[in-house]
Amino acid sequence: MPGLALVARTAWGAGGEPAHGAGGGAFGPRHDLAVLVHEGRIAAVAPAAAAGSLGADRVVDLGDVTLLPGFVDAHVHLTATGLGVHGANLRGARSAAQLLERVAAAAERSAGGLVWGDGYDETTFPSPGLPTPAALDAAAGGRPVYLSRVDGHQGLATLQVLAEAGALAAVGCDRGPDGAPTGVVRDDANHRARRHAIGQLSNATLVAAQDQALALAARRGVVCVHEMGGPDISSRRDFELLIGRLDTLPLQVVGYWGAFDLDYVLDRKQALRCARRAVRVVGHTAFAACRHRIEHVELLGSDGADRMAELGLAAGVQPAFDAAWGGPNGMYERRLGSRRAKSMNPFADLWRRGVPMGGSSDSNVTPLNPWHGVAAAVHHHRAPQRLGLPVALELFTLGGRVLARQERTTGRIQPGQRADLTAFPGDALAIDPSKLEQVDAVFTMVGGRFAHGPEELAMDVAFSFGGWT
Ligand SMILES: [Zn+2]
Asked: Can you tell me the distance from the alpha carbon of 155 to that of 121, in angstroms, rounded to the nearest whole number?
């Protein structure tokens, strides 16, 4: 059989049962493995010594790398991620003055129109206070400005933007002691301002931002992302620009559209009652097979994991949130109180009860970087909720496939599965996952096609990568 045989010293996800199953962690690793890729699928998995007898057109010895099923980031915002690179990147800014410097630099870099900035977090400023709308206006040379806080739930904009967006009279428009708007918007006012600001960006800008985010994901070993669109997050236009070109994108994108126009979604108890009723009507197995998912399963009551398991609900989790906001005096504790903070992000509880889970970054809230998420799950601030490395890896590979009901076709290195693969240098199972956060994937393959990696890999010539490390 013709095809490409990839030989790796270490492979994970190639054997046994997933950690989620009764086998418990036998999913990997295996050593010295050859994987034959043919017509977009994994055609055979064999010991490296047998690579020559697989009949491949080409055998590529990747050397000392770890071959993995490609990562899935099960909750991202591609456009915001790309815009974070394109516009003013406000991450790490520690004062109002630094915010203004970065806005001024972004305004200088770009030709005209609205200046978009992303990632500020005023809770980390040593001395509190955000710039005034007038200071923002001056820094951008009079151009409209919209800055998104790191979580996307608060914005800071020039008054012109707020006026044009109809945000000045909306709920959530912050005002100072003198009654004048401070430029800070939350809730409805933020949704309006954000929607208006995105409306100012051209189709070309949105597409370029999406492409930039996908290229970044491919470099990180990601083969599939779940795009979480919604009218208050991006826009229908933005979502359709992405969904309209699914077949031509380098990675697999699963689109989810979330809108709050269903009143019952706003009432969590009512939603749970609906779920209970649905379970009774269609039966537990049929309901669980739908993989209804709850996103951001952070703050669960003491019986929350049991109830999710009972209802057959799946969980979208973001371990990097714990890394960013967990721990003593973290944002969770300061905003929600220490009692609630002590029960946040109960990954191990959910896992032990067999709740299907997929890991994600919610990029650009936290970096689009699966190793960062894996490391955060392994090093959870609350030791009893830590996941072992194999489980954490499964969260960011097979987990996303389970959420999207794709686990029968992809997510493991097994014959018949789609060739969605990645590799990282060295033995990734033998080191702390945080060490891989700054390391690019050796290659990323989606359905047998290379989305990232050295040109030689994609060329139809004999080539050996022995000696990567
Ligand atoms: Zn999100």
From this structure: 11
Cα distance between residue 67 and residue 5, in whole Å: 12
Number of domains in the chain: 3
Distance CA 213, CA 210 (A): 5
**pLDDT of residue 25 exceeding 80:** no
Compute CA distances 83 → 235, 309, 403, whole Å.
14, 38, 27
Residues 270 and 405 in one domain: yes
CATH number at residue 296: 3.20.20.140
User: Please, are residues 119 and 146 in contact by the beta-carbon 8 Å criterion?
Assistant: no
| pLDDT tens sequence across 80-97 | 899 887 778 898 899 999
Residue 77 CA, ligand 1 centroid: distance in Å: 6
Distance of CA 112 from the midpoint of ligand 1 (Å): 28
d(CA 24, CA 34) in angstroms, rounded, equals: 24
Question: Distance between CA atoms of 342 and 234, rounded to whole angstroms?
Answer: 32
Q: Where are the strands (E) in 237-317, listed by range?
A: 252-257, 293-295, 314-317
**Mean pLDDT for the stretch of residues 254-281:** 71
Asked if residue 196 lies in contact with residue 173, where contact means CB atoms within 8 angstroms, the answer is: no
**In which element (H, E) is residue 277 found?**
helix 268-282
Q: Quick one: residue 170, left, alpha or beta (phi over 0 = left, psi -120 to 50 = alpha)?
A: beta
Ligand 1 center–CA 291 separation, angstroms: 19
| pLDDT at 266 exceeding the cut of 60 | no
DSSP-assigned letters across all residues of 436-451: GTTPPPSEEEETTEEE
| Residues written for the chain | 469
How far, in Å, from the CA of 275 to the mean position of ligand 1? 23
DSSP string, 313-324: -EEEE-HHHHHH
- Domain co-membership, 373 together with 450: no
Residues linked to residue 45 through DSSP beta bridges, in sequence order: 35
CA of 149 to the centre of ligand 1 (A): 13
**What is the pTM assigned to this prediction?**
0.87
Q: At CA 71, angle to CA 87 and CA 403, rounded to 5?
A: 100
Domain housing 192: 78-199
Distance 213 CA to ligand 1 centre (A): 15
Q: pLDDT (tens digit, 9 = 90+) per residue, 98-148?
A: 999 999 999 998 778 899 998 899 988 998 899 999 999 999 999 999 999
Distance 256 CA to ligand 1 centre (A): 11
Q: Are residues 188 and 154 in the same domain?
A: yes
Give per-residue pLDDT as tens, 157-191. 999 999 999 999 999 999 999 999 999 999 999 99
Query: ∠ at Cα 36 (31, 42), nearest 5°?
Result: 100
